[in-house]
Structures are given as C-alpha cells and as structure tokens.
Amino acid sequence: MFDQLFIGGLATGCVYAVVGLGFTLVYRTLRMVNFAQGHVFMAGAFLGLVIAERVHLPALPLLFVVGAVAFALGMVLERLVFRRLYHNHEVFIVGSIGLGIVLMNGVRVFFPEPVPFPKVFGSEVVQIGAARFQEGYLWVVLSTLVLVVLLHAMFTYTRTGRALRAVAADAEIAATVGVDVKRAIALTFGLSFAVAAIAGVLIGPLYFVSFDMGDMVGLKAFSAAVFGGINSIPGTILGGLVIGVLENLAGGYISSAYKDLVAFVILLVMLIWRPTGLLGRETPVKV
Amino acid sequence: MAALHQRWWFWAATLAALLALPALAPQYVVHIANFILIYTLPVVGLGFLTGFTGRVSLAQGALFGVGAYTTALLTTKLGWAPVATLVPSVLMTIVLAVSLGGAAVRLAGLYFVMATIGIQQIVWLVLMNWIELTNGPQGVRSIPAVGLGEYSLETPQQFYFLALVAAGISYFLAKRVIGSRLGLFLRALSDDQLAASSVAVEVGRAKVTALALSAAWAGAGGFLYAHYVRFIHPDMFGLEPSVLFLVMSMFGGYRSIEGMIVATALLESATEYLRPFGEFRMIAYGMILLLGMMFFPMGILTLVRRRAGAPAAGKD
Q1: CA A152 distance to own-chain centroid
Q2: What pLDDT was estimated at residue B309?
Q3: Which residue of B119, B203, B243 is in closest CB contact with A97?
C-alpha cells in the first residue's frame, strides 16, 4: 500500500512541480503571481486532446507541439494582456484570475462534459515492488525529470537563459548591460505557459480531462511553489514532490475527505513560519 | 464647490429613491437590490483591510460563509431565533479570522494574499467535508426567515428594508471607525508603517484590529445572506465570491466607501443581467475583471472623479 501511494503521489507531485514552475518563473522575474497558470495547464491538456484526435502523433512530438503552441500563446498574451497589468500585485492577481475564468469558460463552451484522453503513452500496467500502476505514471515522472534538466541546462549554459536569470535578479541592472528586458519577460511567460501545458498533456491520459481541472491543480501547484520557495526553481520542484506524496499518504492512511486540505495547511503554516519557503532566499518585508 | 455627496438634497433624494424602490420596482430588481445591499457589508469590510493596512485578502468569501453557516446551524439544528444569532455569527467570524489570519497579517503585501488563499481553501474544504456539522455538499436547507415579533421577513420586498437598514448601519459605523482614533492609526499604518510605529501606533495590534473589523462586517453580511437565500452550500463561499468581493472593493477605488458601494451595485447588476447569456456569462464576467484591471487599475470611479475635477480615488 505504501509503495502504491508513494508512487502515485510522486506522479501527482511532478505535475504540481511542473505547473508550480510556471508560478516560480513569473514570480522571480516580476514579483507577481499569475493565477491563470492552473487554467493554462487545463488548456494544455485540451490542446493535446484536440491535436491527438486529429493527427496521430507519438507521445514525444505531441508534447513538443503542445509546448511550442503554448509558448507562442504565452508570448502573445504577455504582449496583449499581462503587460497592462504590471501596475501592482493586486491588479495582476485579479486580472490573471479574470483571464483564467475566460480560459476555463471558453473551453467549457466546446467541452461541457469531462472527456477521456487518447492513450498516447500506452496503457500497459507496470509493476515496481508491491506497486502496480499504468505506464503513464512513468511518463509523468520521466518527462518531468527531462524537462527540469532541459530548463536547468538552458538557464545555465545558454545566452538567453543567462539573460532571463539576470532580469530575474535585477531587471534595471540587466538592462544597463544590454539585456532586452521586455523580450526576457515575454520569454518568461512563454516558458511558464509551455511547462504548464506540457504538464496538462502528461496528466491527461491518466484521468479524464475537464474544463475545471485547472482550478485545484493550479492552487495546489501554487502552494507547492510557496512551500518550496516561490523564487527558487529547485525549491518549487521539491515542494511539488513533497506535497504530492504527503497528500496521497494522508488520503490513504488518514482520511480521503481531507486529502485536499494538506496542501493548503502546509501553505499557511509555511508562510507564517518561513515565508521564503524551504529553499527560497529573498527576505520578504515583515514589520 | 462642495462635492456632490456633501449636499443635503443629494442625500435626501438617495434616501427617498431607496425607500420607494420596493414599491415601484419589479420584484426581480428588488431581489438584485437585496444582494447588492448584502454584499455591501463584506465589501466595506474588505475596504478596512485593503484601504487601511494596504493588505488585500482573498478570504473574505470564506469569512462571509462562516457568518452564514454559524447562523444557519444555530437556527436549524439548535432552534435559535434568527435575531439571536447575529452576535454569535459576527463573533464566530472574528474568532476564526483572527485565529487563522492573526499571524499572517504581519506578512507584507503579496505574501499576505498567498496566506489568505490558504485560509480560503481550508475553510471551504472544512465546510465541504465536515459532514456531521455542516451537512457537507448537501448544504443547509430551510433556514428560517428573520422575524420581528410576529412579522416574518419572507418576500424580497419585506427583506429589503432589513437589508437597507443593515447596510445603512454598517455604512455609518464604517464611517465612524474611519473617523475615529483607530481609523487614524490604520491610515497612518498604510501610509508608512515605520513612521506610524515611531509615533506610538502599535502596528501589530492595529493590523489585527483591522482584520477583526473586516471579519465582523463579513460575518454580519453572511448572517443576512443565510436568512435571505435560506439555503446555503459550501460552493457559495469558495474562491469565487472572494474574488468578487475583492474586485468590488478594488473597482471602487481603495479608500472610498461610497465608491465601493457603487462598484458593488454596478458589478452585481452586471453579473445578474448577464444571466440570459448562459454559458457565455462567465466569459463576459472574466472579461470584465480582466479589462477592468487592464484599463482602470485604480478603480472605475477614478474616471468619473477625474472628470469632476476632484482628486483621484486613493490619493486623498
């Protein structure tokens, strides 16, 4: 039972981690929280569904195509929408919640009922230790690993990645040494949309996809990001995994009714005890 | 030139219009007016927190729900008279807000918002899952109407006067609080915390007081709501109303109670009149939030005020 719960939790945790990365990327750069993130995850799942139903694509190209489309969408929305919301964090929060509502109900018009996702990742049952689970879970964990390695490589070794980090550290100084700050911010939104959409495609085949699936996942991914440190990428990943595993264990051993509570209790306790999160560094103003 | 709201005839006309409304307007309009009056309470409560400590809360919907559930459970399960549950509802909401949020209110800006999202979700999940106490997803049915002696306020027209009196009292009480010594402390706090603390404002206590005040108004609003709709469900107190209340207080400009009331009225009627659009209603609602924030980040009333030559809301 423990193995089963642990591996299931790890897979969910990976999704929280990847969606949470979207929160972290934007937060590091702008000190703003984009609450449309969960709905981008949902929209990604439906984008994958629509593509997979029309074109028969293997899993990897499908993930790539969805990531690319979401990236472009993120860049476009930054230019058209987000750029006008940088006024202060309340304005950004409410504006992004509004965008999330539009996304969610826009998808609802076309898909009012939950729909099954094509089994793009195979449907064999794998056995590890005492745990038996679908092949899809392995895909979630492995893809998360690959995604994190790719992101890390990009931030460490490429010119663009270094520019993004410079803007996150201090936009003004980055601008004085010739970094195109506007482009960096647009790229950040592109990346945050891409990772969330990819997470949507990964989780799709394991459950049904529905227009409101982004609500809870978004808020839990946000809790994961705050728990691990909302300005730290490794922190967010750790936070996602810990929350995914803990809530699955709590659901299995304590009470399935209160499973959803775990993430939010952790969020509240962490904020009061250590607002920067497990691995975050920045000191928030506290008087 | 004195501003519009300083003239006696403006007040007299407003009062006359409000009193005549249930007699002249169709029932549907009275129904919407009741919701506007009820929502005025949590929105003004939020104004205490936002306008006077600079903190934004996304848990007001949950506190509103705590007030509603307290009175609903006391009247349906223990058979209390509705009038007797007003004080327990308000107290319960304050206790819950201070015990969950008291430590979080020290957090600055965005970190406080994050904490309130946690509080919001915790309250909603408990309402949903503590089935022995709250009936969980079945909600609480047949909540009695408020009775005054033998007269019970059942129709929208009858309830309207209660809601009007409650909104009126809460408006004048709020004005009194703002004008009081405490209001002065709180305003000093939102302008500059360090400066305020250096002139002997107890920053920590003032913030918790602001939180308690905002909870009290939310609890009283929840009390009215429960006895008006008479059936409550946890989903009525999720993140959605929290966002709605926050938007109502933001659209009104941060520090103007009148602005918040007007914004509440506009937004509530807008969402009601969007009902015929069915599934497109929520898309339109999302667009209102998004476009409102993109083009009027300081509140919709700033547009009117700027034209009138008065200082922009939030700057006075």
Answers
A1: 16
A2: 43
A3: B243
User: Among A198-207, B46-55, B131-140, where is mean pLDDT lowest?
Assistant: B46-55
| Domain map (residue ranges) of chain B | 27-238
What are the C-alpha distances in Å from A21 to residues A26, A69, B279? 9, 18, 31
The full set of domains in chain A, from first to last, is: 2-273 (1.10.3470)
Computed over its alpha carbons, how large is the radius of gyration of chain A?
18
Interface of B with A in 226-255 (CB under 8 A): 239, 243, 246-247, 250
Among candidates B215, B216, B211, which has minimal Cα distance to B87? B216
Query: Is the pLDDT confidence value at B315 over 60?
Result: no
User: What letter would DSSP give residue A45?
Assistant: H
Cβ neighbours for A219, distance < 8 A, ≥ 6 positions apart: A38, A263, A264, B117, B121, B239
Nearest CA in chain A to B100: A268
Q: Does B232 have pLDDT greater than 50?
A: yes
What's the whole-model pTM score? Answer: 0.89
Q: Which residue has the tokens 């319960």?
A: B92
Shortest Cα–Cα distance, A269 to chain B (Å):
9
Q: Which pLDDT band holds residue A76 (cuts at 50, 70, 90)?
A: very high
> B104 vs A268: CB contact, 8 Å cut-off?
yes
pLDDT at A8 over 70: yes
